[in-house]
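DM from R.C. (forwarded with permission)

"hey, sorry to bug you on a friday — could you get me a structure for this? deadline for the figure draft is monday and I only need the backbone to look sensible"
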Amino acid sequence: MSQIDRAAIRKQFQRHDRDTGSSEVQIAVLTKEIEAITAHLKVNKKDQSSRYGLIRKVNTRRSLLDYLKRENEESYRKLIKELGLRR
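My reply, with the result:
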């Protein structure tokens, strides 16, 4: 699987210059990881351990999105639009 440029993602979605762990950054990184694993699984259909990892990442992202929606709905809507997620 290809490497994900976390620094570029972090720079795009961070709230301030030293922000590395806000919900927005975590969701964006997870989204890119999910896209990479999904592409991997299209080629390697029998890779069950990667499928399990994908499910865990999707569930983690879902929890973070629910949290962000509860705490800051405006930021949630902006993030959904930027990442192109269906919600």
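R.C.: lifesaver. The first helix runs from residue 6 to 13.
me: no worries. The chain has a mean pLDDT of 93.
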